[in-house]
Structures are given as structure tokens and as C-alpha cells.
Design brief:
The chain is mainly alpha-helical. The chain has two domains: about 5-65, Arc Repressor Mutant, subunit A (Orthogonal Bundle); about 65-125, no CATH class. It is about 75% helix and about 0% strand.
């Protein structure tokens, strides 16, 4: 899966958490991209089985898409915590940096960072 696909899946999940009906224009605004770019990526995501084919009315993740997004967010939470709590970045900047990190770095690196964050949080709470 390419970084672009991950960014779009995360955007769809975040927008779905706000409003049940996610439209292409919402995704374009959220990511700061053009509507044709959104349509092209949604076609790719539909072909991969991550969103349902009829995405013109509302973009909906398939069960496989939901599974992938849940996997992505399992890394995202700890990485976001690292940027926000440990590096003291503001929430929006921490969100942006965490998204870049999980999309651009290898999964193994994300897993290592998750482990360090979890370990340090346990130490702080002890």
C-alpha cells in the first residue's frame, strides 16, 4: 500500500467519525487536494477493495478497508502521542507529523516507536 492510499484511508476514517456521509469534496478539503485527485484515488481504493464502488454519493469503507484503517490507527495513536506529549508539538502539528511518519517510514520503525512510547508511558505511570 502506498503512502497516498494510507493518507486517504485515514482521512476517510477521520471524516466518517465526524459525519456519517463523507463526500469527495470533504476529502479534498481535508487533504488540501483537488476533487479530480480524490476521484482518481477513490477509484484506486475501490479497485483494491478498500472502499465501496459507489463512492459518488458517499465514501464508505469496506470491511477490508476498516481492517486496514484499524491497523493504521494502531500505529497512529502511539506515534501521535510521541509527537504531542514527548516532543510537545501542538495537536494539529503532532497529527500532521504522525501521519507523515506512519505513511513514510517502514512498519518496523513504527512498531519500534510504538514499543518505546508504550514502555515510557508505563514507566511514567508506575
Amino acid at each position: 500500500m502506498c503512502p497516498g492510499q494510507i493518507k486517504y484511508l485515514v482521512a476517510i476514517k477521520e471524516l466518517t467519525d465526524i459525519d456519517e456521509y463523507v463526500k469527495c469534496v470533504n476529502i479534498a478539503n481535508h487533504l488540501g487536494v483537488s476533487r479530480p485527485s480524490v476521484s482518481k484515488m477513490l477509484r484506486c481504493l475501490a479497485n483494491s477493495g478498500y472502499v465501496y464502488e459507489d463512492f459518488c454519493n458517499s465514501v464508505v469503507l469496506t470491511p477490508e478497508g476498516e481492517s486496514i484503517v484499524n491497523e493504521i490507527f494502531s500505529s497512529f495513536s502511539e506515534v501521535y502521542t510521541f509527537f504531542h506529549r514527548f516532543l510537545k508539538l501542538p495537536k494539529e502539528k503532532a497529527h500532521e507529523q504522525a501521519l507523515l511518519f506512519i505513511t513514510d517510514f517502514p512498519q518496523e520503525t513504527c512498531d519500534r516507536l510504538k514499543h518505546i512510547v508504550k514502555h515510557n508511558i508505563k514507566k511514567k505511570n508506575s
